[in-house]
Amino acid sequence: MQTMKIRKTAFLLGAGMVLGLLTAGALPAQAGMCKKSVEKERFEENQFREPCQSYREVPEGFVKKGCEIVRADKDMKASKPAQVVSDYTLFFEFDSAAINPDGRKILEQVAHEIKKYKPREVTVAGYADKAGPQDYNAALSRKRSEAVSQALTTLGIDNRVIEKQAYGETRPAVKTPDGVRELRNRRVVIEFRK
Length: 194
Fold this sequence. Notes:
Elements: H1 2-13, H2 15-24, H3 31-46, E1 62-65, E2 68-71, H4 74-79, E3 84-91, H5 101-117, E4 121-126, H6 134-154, E5 162-166, E6 187-193
Parallel strand pairs: 4-5
Antiparallel strand pairs: 1-2, 3-6, 4-6
């Protein structure tokens, strides 16, 4: 029985070291047990730890699902679409993503309401009119949604609650032929969802 304990110790300590101690007669029968119990304690401490354990705090509106941090409502989205509670529209000058003074006032109101009501989701969707090439308009609508998102972040809204979308000229508010400038189509729509 002592031989088995020594063999386990040989595995933990290294075969050369144990054999040297055995031949010199310097290894007491219980010496291997101390090392084994330390190794066993380390194993027992770690065997129940999650492989992706993170000590970061999970942000509000998110949950930890396995190793991932996901929006708390991710599972609900598949079963039931979120209800739009409120929406705001900002209009833009031709070929521009700059927010005008009227748009700034609207954004201040939007930021106030987001802080007050804490909606589950905020969508910022950019659009363009049909003047110009379609790929250019898609990029311009993306710039508009980014500009509004950045402005909301500057006003104290956490960027993680903002979902940005860009539709280019594909979803006009007012139907027009290709190449026509239309103010009502050059817009960003901000929606709050429960």
